[in-house]
Amino acid sequence: MDRNSKTVWLQRDVVQHNSHDYFAVLGLPVTADAYQIRQRYLSLAKTLHPDVPVEVPRNKDKACEYLAKLVNPAYDNLMQARERAEYNALIKIIARRLLKRLVVLVPKSEAAKRLFRSPSDAHYVQAVEAIASLQYKSLDKVSEYTEQLSELNVVYALYQEGFHPALCDSSEASSQDSSKQQVCLSLGHINQLATHRAKEFSNPLLPRSQAYIRSAEAYIIAKQWTMALGDLRTALQIDRTNSKCHALLGVVYLNQRLLGMARLSFQQALKLNPREPLVQEHISQYAKMLSHVPNRYQKGSGFFGWLGSS
């Protein structure tokens, strides 16, 4: 597997990051119940505990770290019915939003590609079990196998939401007619967005509106404009006085080529904060796009004019 394709929380050493794909961490399908979670945890605890003798020599400190920082937190969370339900709901939301758009999905691992071509409950569970049997046998490959499991979870979520496979590789995706606005998107990247969102909303010290704004920023970076738009609108329902939120909304509209909506959002941001940095940052982009609009549509919409009068 190409190591460059790893999601943020799986870069190089997985125990350094806080993964929220707890099913992948334990090597379980998302359909696992409390009994299956308990049995898998006991098996992993026996495998990784430093006091348990093993046939093959290993780094006991690293095994202990995996157990303490990865496996134990995953188990503690998944034994809570609410946490299991929230995880599944989150992945379903991502899947549903993707299915509303023309998206070319590109799985990375061979297991995900096979499931993608022939999705079924049985194939999913079999694929998870096959990878899980190898997951913690070599501590140097835990990250790789956990990422593969996480990718399988997203493919399965898409299947559950009615997705029909249309597998293509990167070269095929890049040759698609750009007028169809199709997007080549790694499933690992989808999970990165889901993981980021879960982390923001699990922070008890972060105001709810800020959690939506941070989630929207991640979507903007990934150029997922529709998803960002939904989070920003929700944030504004909570707090309409946040200039950054209005400015981000303008950025989304700008990239959707809705210049009138972008202008209104930027104006509102400047009313709340005349020095809003995001508006200043996107002045040139707006002006450039406006210059290509026919003159009859530019009346009263000069960017620099209303910026200077704010």
Strand order of the largest sheet: 1-2
Number of helices: 16
Largest sheet descriptor: 2 strands, parallel
The proportion of residues in beta strands is under 5%
Please, what is the average pLDDT? 76
* CATH C-level name of the largest domain: Mainly Alpha
Description:
By secondary structure, the protein is mainly alpha-helical. The protein folds into two domains: 3-183, DnaJ domain (Helix Hairpins); 203-308, Serine Threonine Protein Phosphatase 5, Tetratricopeptide repeat. It is built from 16 helices and two strands. It has a two-stranded parallel sheet with strand order 1-2. Helix 10 packs antiparallel against helix 11, helix 10 runs parallel beside helix 12 (243-255) and helix 11 packs antiparallel against helix 12 (243-255). It is elongated and about 65 Å long. The model is unreliable at 1-19, 166-185 and 299-304 (pLDDT under 50).
